[in-house]
Specification:
- The chain is mainly alpha-helical and 176 residues long.
- It has one domain: Fumarate Reductase Cytochrome B subunit.
- 72% of the residues lie in helices and 4% in strands.
- The chain has five helices and two strands, in the order αααββαα.
- Strands 1-2 form a two-stranded antiparallel ribbon.
- A hairpin with a 2-residue loop joins strand 1 and strand 2.
- Helix 1 packs antiparallel against helix 2 and helix 3 packs antiparallel against helix 4.
- The longest helix has 36 residues.
- It starts with 9 loop residues before the first helix and ends with a helix.
- The model has no long low-confidence stretch (mean pLDDT 94).
């Protein structure tokens, strides 16, 4: 292994693991929301919206940190297609971590539903009211959430491959 700086900086590692927990929680809350018509729906929505805003803010901070302090280099013996897949999947993850909350916010705005953070504190609408746009954004939000779930599973699989099979230090670079 020829990694000059073998670990991500401490802020990157903290944000990674914090966001991993938040995103997994968000995905399961989202599944619960679309699969229930009980009184729990309102409670799940009340958690989902501010959690989405938190993920958006943390993703912006994480991206800024990543641009300021790039990732450690991948192992020199990693096949080129795996290196490309690693880089592409990470940028897709950033895109989804930023895009999904923004689409959710836009969807709520088009549906004239405020994104309440706490009590009376709500985000301003970012789109005008439009039932058709609301429906399209809802479909996009749901489809992209499934894509994020698939990408998280692939990311986890790749991390385990680096830890258990290749043992090349990639897993340790993000370990707490």
């Amino acid at each position: 292994m020829t990694r000059s700086d073998p670990r991500f900086d401490p802020l990157a590692r903290l944000l990674h693991w914090l966001m991993a927990a938040l995103i997994l929680a968000m995905l399961f809350i989202g599944v619960g929301m679309v699969s229930t018509v009980s009184e729990r729906y309102a409670m799940l929505v009340a958690i989902h919206r501010p959690l989405g805003v938190a993920i958006l803010c943390l993703a912006a901070l994480r991206l800024a940190n990543r641009l300021r302090k790039p990732a450690p280099p991948l192992p020199a013996d990693l096949p080129a297609w795996q290196g490309f897949a690693a880089r592409a999947s990470h940028w897709l993850l950033y895109g989804l971590m930023l895009g999904l909350p923004l689409i959710g916010w836009a969807m709520q705005s088009a549906g004239q539903v405020p994104v309440v953070l706490y009590g009376q504190l709500a985000l301003p609408a970012i789109l005008p009211a439009s039932p058709g746009l609301h429906a399209a954004l809802r479909s996009a939000h749901q489809l992209l959430a499934y894509g994020l779930f698939l990408l998280v599973l692939l990311h986890l699989g790749a991390a385990l491959m680096h830890r258990l099979l290749r043992r090349d230090g990639v897993f340790r670079s993000m370990a707490p």
